[in-house]
Amino acid sequence: MNTGQQLLLTISALGACNGLILGLYLLFNRKGRPLWTFFMGLMLLMISLRVAKSVFYYFNPDLPKSCLQTGLSACFLIGPSLYYMLLSARNNGNPVPKSWKAAWGVLLTIIILGGTLISYEAYPKIWNKVIAYIIYAQWFLYLIASVYVMRGEIGKIFGGKVTVLERQMLSVLAGNLILYLFYALALFRFMPAVYIAAAVSFTFILYVTIFVFFYGAGSKSANPQPPKRKIPDADAQSLLEKLSAAMAVPDVYKDPNLKLGDLAQRLHVTPHLLSQLLNDNLGKSFSAFVNEYRIGEACRLITTNDHLTFEAIGYEVGFNSKSTFYAAFRKVTGTTPALFRENLAQSAARQRS
């Protein structure tokens, strides 16, 4: 291996490794993150597997057939990951449609069942002459669909204000188009020499995309976000029903470590959307909303359990300290736990007399 080949190997492998690490991080570090970051993590993981296969195959054509199948199978999910990433970014944190889950169920079934019945090891010619072209055709169709989804944002490039998130999505879309172009030219034998160039380009695309994301996050003043839009009444009502159902489970609000992001994740919405729902539609902060449920449960315990101390009740319903419990109790009920219990006793005495 000469110096030039070593350089190509190093650059390509660097991009594949970094993409793999970043993809896994976005996939498994889900707390408080919007849904589109999950699809972005999946997309990076699939591209990294495809690039890694390209690198190893370029320098070692005798690569095991299972590795070749893994690389091509990963291509089958790159397009869908990009498409649903862009859709979820525009979905504004709304619940995941059932059609998305069904579509991914079909895709995964095709990969698992099809890859098992028609393996690369047993049918290499079918994979090279048929399946590979089907995979790239599917990737191309999803790219076209992704461009269609972003048509409005693409138009803004030539005369409108592009928001931070829109610029980030456009950079990811552009990187996918470039990467596909390199691989397609090599697949159809127009320019076989660009096969390894696709792997090398991914490294540069990855770093440029990361720069755009970090730069965008740090320059919001240069690209102000549009005014906050009110949640449509129908969507708000649906979310309020889901929120009510989630809070009907005592273990949820009794969790002393419950955070806005935790509850948002249960509802499959972004923390920002949940906060907006509470503020705009209920006129409450997150802490005030949760404390109402906790104090409601505390009142029930005071009514039904004479043997429990107020401090024990406070800890039972999710407060971390006695003082926090007392302050929240007074704010919600307008009285103290002791006076609340005393009033209950007096009411019971009057009823008996």
3D architecture notes:
This protein has 353 residues and is mainly α. The chain has 16 helices and no strands. It has helices at residues 3-28, 35-59, 65-90, 98-117, 124-149, 151-156, 164-187, 195-217, 233-247, 250-253, 260-267, 271-282, 286-304, 310-317, 322-333, 337-352. Helix 5 (124-149) packs antiparallel against helix 7 (164-187) and helix 13 (286-304) packs across helix 14. It is elongated, with a radius of gyration of 27 Å. The termini are far apart.
Largest sheet: none
SSE order: HHHHHHHHHHHHHHHH
Q: Quick one: how many beta strands? A: 0
Intertermini distance: 100 Å
**Proportion in β-strands:** under 5%
Low-confidence stretches: 217-226
Q: What structural class should be given to the helix and strand makeup?
A: mainly alpha
Computed CA radius of gyration, to the nearest angstrom: 27 Å
Q: Helical segment tally?
A: 16
Percentage of residues assigned to helices: over 70%
Q: Residue-averaged pLDDT, rounded?
A: 82
**Coarse shape:** elongated
Task: Quickly describe the structure.
With 353 residues, the protein is mostly helical. The protein has 16 helices and no strands.
